[in-house]
Design brief:
single chain; alpha+beta; Rossmann fold; elongated; ABC-type ferric iron transporter activity
Length: 347
């Protein structure tokens, strides 16, 4: 059911627009893998999905499945399924007939199309609602029907365009678990468009970050957090520490002192660089003369935990505190900053 998806210099320039919606991106999603395309509104995420699906034509570049160029093929011949933010179900059909629509349209009998559809309704845990009108089911159930309908076409690549964004947090978590079950059962190649880094982290194997139509980062999920390619990627991944300084032979120098970058990570050329430090990985300690030392000048809640602001010279470092701990303002502390928490960028 799955295929390797390859985008080569894929571009889209909408008529009348000054800047391209998609600026020649290269991206490969291995067969059976899930890649999340993450970015703010207007970054080109949905444009990329529409080009993969064949709903829009690129102004440059190509789309290939298992090495075969499908750029010129119409959507119905690509073997690509797509689930949108809204379910877009056929209101005059029952749940099971929505799922079996493609099979029925291809000439199968009603009984044959329904028999095939039942497997996918079972997969999304809606077999008991098969005969119900789609107007009589909830929003979360409707999105499950839309997912089942797309899977019933046996797509080689499944595209998800922010399909869970309209659901409440409990339903979203239920849908995340369902996607994991589907991946285990069918191993589809999935491209997920989202603006939610949590969603990308829990569903995807890798994250591709689009900003203003440019692919600024693509890596495994963990590396997107700890080794973002730019400050913009760092902020999108929730990073809040950006320390200006100077890089020399893999060591960043600033008011924090000399901090070594991970030897196995990316290291820019010597010169001005911004040190990015994951706030969750810093630890406040009583202190050692060898550690950066500063004063806590503020704290704010962040869910079960809180963020402490530590002033060290001209630099403010934000530290996530363990659950149940406090950080009294005015306390002098040391900061234990592991190399794995650090990366340096030049833009």
């Amino acid at each position: 059911m799955s295929a390797t998806l390859s985008l080569t210099r894929l571009a889209r320039h909408h008529p009348g627009e000054q800047h391209p919606a998609l600026a020649g991106i290269d991206l490969e999603v291995p067969a059976g893998a899930c890649t999340a395309i993450l970015g703010p509104s207007g970054s080109g995420k949905s444009t990329a999905l529409r080009l993969i699906a064949g709903l829009d034509a690129p102004t440059g570049g190509s789309v290939a499945l298992d090495g075969v160029d499908v750029t010129a093929l119409p959507p119905e011949r690509r073997g690509v399924g797509m689930v949108f933010q809204r379910p877009l179900l056929f209101p005059h059909l029952s749940v099971i007939d929505n799922v079996g629509f493609a099979a029925r349209a291809s000439g199968q009998s009603r009984s044959a199309s329904r028999s095939s559809a039942r497997r996918y309704l079972e997969l999304v845990h809606l077999e008991d609602l098969a005969d119900r009108p789609v107007g009589a089911i909830s929003g979360g159930q409707a999105q499950r029907v839309a997912l089942a309908r797309s899977l019933a076409n046996a797509p080689r690549v499944l595209l998800l365009d922010e399909p869970f964004s309209a659901l409440d947090s409990v339903l979203r978590e239920d849908m995340y678990e369902l996607v994991r079950e589907i991946r285990k059962e069918l191993s589809p190649t999935i491209v997920l468009v989202t603006h939610d880094r949590h969603e990308a982290a829990v569903l995807a194997d890798s994250v591709a970050v689009l900003i203003d139509g440019v692919l600024e980062h693509h890596s495994e999920v963990s590396s997107a957090y700890t080794q973002p390619s730019t400050r913009a990627v760092n902020r999108l991944m929730g990073g809040i520490n950006e320390i200006h300084g100077h890089l020399e032979r893999g060591v960043h120098h600033s008011d924090l002192g000399a901090l070594h970058l991970p030897p196995d990570g990316p290291v820019p050329d010597d010169g001005p660089a911004v040190l990015l430090i994951r706030h969750e990985m810093i630890r406040i300690v009583d202190g050692s003369p060898d550690l950066p030392r500063g004063v806590i000048c503020g704290a704010r809640p962040a869910g079960l935990r809180s963020i402490a602001d530590v002033r060290i010279g001209s630099v403010m470092v934000h530290v996530e505190l363990p659950t149940g701990t406090t950080a009294p303002v005015g306390t002098e502390v040391g900061l234990e900053i592991p190399a794995a928490a650090c990366t340096a960028v030049t833009r």
